[in-house]
Write a structure and sequence with these properties.
The chain is mainly alpha-helical. It has three domains: 2-38, no CATH class; 49-216 and 286-328, no CATH class; 365-432. The chain is built from 17 helices and three strands. Strands 2-1-3 form a three-stranded antiparallel β-sheet. The termini are close together.
């Protein structure tokens, strides 16, 4: 929204008139040789690293959900449709991070097991270089897929660590490795955001660039390993302030009282809870890391998912046994291709034409489904929506359109999926800018 205003509003250097970009041709009839520049070129937008991290996590969960995370969440106790929808949508940042930690540790260790066994059989010492050479000969697509997942998850750790320690290089290294996955689904806001951010970083004068690098994140506790993005710090402060305002429309006096006294009131609250022996529920949403890592590793071995990496498999399979689309193993190549195409389209001022990524065989075979099957898929997605109001609205829409033909049902399904991909980003657009 703000970035669009910056790009659209120009000033004529001949007469200092503000001109919208689409009005330039008309204005040039008055001043034929006029030059224009952006009126708001003094504004530099910085993406909130907290919101970028949060939406990268959502992109990861969307991409990895069917192949891996759906079964992982079930192993970890999230078995109902509602709880799985909550996990898939990254409804709790703490749980999301705990799951990423469990999955990363489990996959990395299990990927090494076949190589370590081979080294043991040959009486060789396992090495990093040896593993990287060995993995080039892997023919099992399921192994290759998990290996690529591990690369993404390690990059997420690197990005998050860079934010926590105010290390701009680490944050950017991890982020840019992950950015292409925004371009295999409908993450349009963050596609534009990360592209614009890299352009802005290149154009910054040296003093500004150094300032931006030095202020990737901030710490409010004094612990240099617990940095947060300024966007999250501001949100936390706003929530804390609002928590002391009574229900209803607040008066100016209530706002002033809450704003001036929130820190003192928080101190009183903490003291009262400590005296009453009531602990703060900061860790209520955490999951057991070691226990769930052991469960996941045991499940991978029980399924013999990575047992024969040097043998080709007939079908690409999810961890819970669903057949995946054969091209999905190359999701990283498709993502990189779409990312490059988006950069080129931005340079030329044209609309990008991304390649479609199919996760399951059904994704590519909607036209082969019956109308009843399409309706069933729509209903399942509607019931997984987080808001009862949204669920009720879509139920009415289904009732209104279910008498139409299958093509209309497929169009309705695509519309629903597009909304599910987009609604969180729309909510965060102002925060991201």
């Amino acid at each position: 929204m703000i970035s669009k205003l910056i790009e659209d509003k120009l000033v004529c250097l001949s007469c200092t008139t503000l001109v919208a970009r689409e009005e330039v041709d008309q204005h040039s009839k008055i001043h034929a040789d006029a030059e224009y520049k952006k009126f708001y070129d003094w504004i530099m937008l910085r993406p909130g690293v907290g919101h970028v991290e949060m939406n990268v996590a959502k992109a990861i969960f969307k991409l990895l959900w069917t192949p891996l995370l759906r079964h992982v969440s079930s192993i970890m106790g999230f078995k109902t449709a509602r709880s799985q929808a909550f996990i898939q949508g990254c409804g709790d940042n703490h749980i999301t991070w705990q799951i990423i930690r469990v999955v990363t540790e489990s996959i990395l260790k299990e990927l090494l097991v076949p190589y370590a066994r081979l080294c043991s059989e040959r009486n060789q010492v396992p090495t990093v270089d040896g593993y990287m050479a060995w993995v080039q000969g892997v023919k099992n697509n399921n192994y290759q897929m998990l290996f690529k997942f591990a690369n993404l998850l390690v990059a997420f750790h690197l990005m998050r660590s860079g934010v926590r320690k105010n290390n701009s290089n680490a944050m950017l290294a991890g982020r840019q490795r992950l950015v292409p996955i925004f371009f295999v689904a409908q993450h349009r806001i963050y596609q534009r955001l990360v592209l614009r951010d890299m352009i802005v970083r290149q154009q910054q004068p040296s003093p500004v660039r150094e300032y931006v690098r030095a202020t990737t994140s901030y710490t409010v506790t004094g612990d240099e390993t617990r940095g947060e993005g300024g966007d999250f710090i501001l949100e936390a402060k706003n929530r804390s302030t609002k928590s002391w305002i009574p229900p209803g429309v607040p008066s100016s006096g209530q706002w002033i009282h809450a704003s001036r006294c929130s820190e003192r009131l928080e101190g009183v609250k903490t003291s009262v809870l400590e005296r009453c022996g009531v602990a703060r529920q900061n860790d209520a949403s955490m999951v057991s890391l070691q226990e769930n890592e052991d469960r996941l590793r045991a499940e991978i071995r029980r399924l013999k998912y990575l047992e024969k990496p040097q043998e080709e498999v007939q079908q690409l399979m999810s961890l819970d046994g669903e057949v995946l689309h054969p091209s999905f193993v190359n999701f990283d190549t498709i993502a990189d291709k779409n990312y490059s195409a988006a950069k080129e389209a931005m340079r030329l001022g044209t609309a990008p034409k991304p390649e479609k990524l199919y996760i399951t065989t059904d994704d590519a075979d909607l036209t082969k489904m019956t109308k009843a099957e399409v309706l069933e898929r729509i209903s399942l997605r509607v019931e997984a929506l987080g808001s009862e109001g949204e669920r009720e609205r879509w139920r009415k829409e289904i009732q209104r359109k279910k008498s139409k033909n299958k093509a209309a049902m497929i169009e309705l399904l695509e519309e629903l999926e597009a909304q599910q991909h987009q609604f969180v980003e729309d909510d965060n657009e102002m925060d991201a800018d």
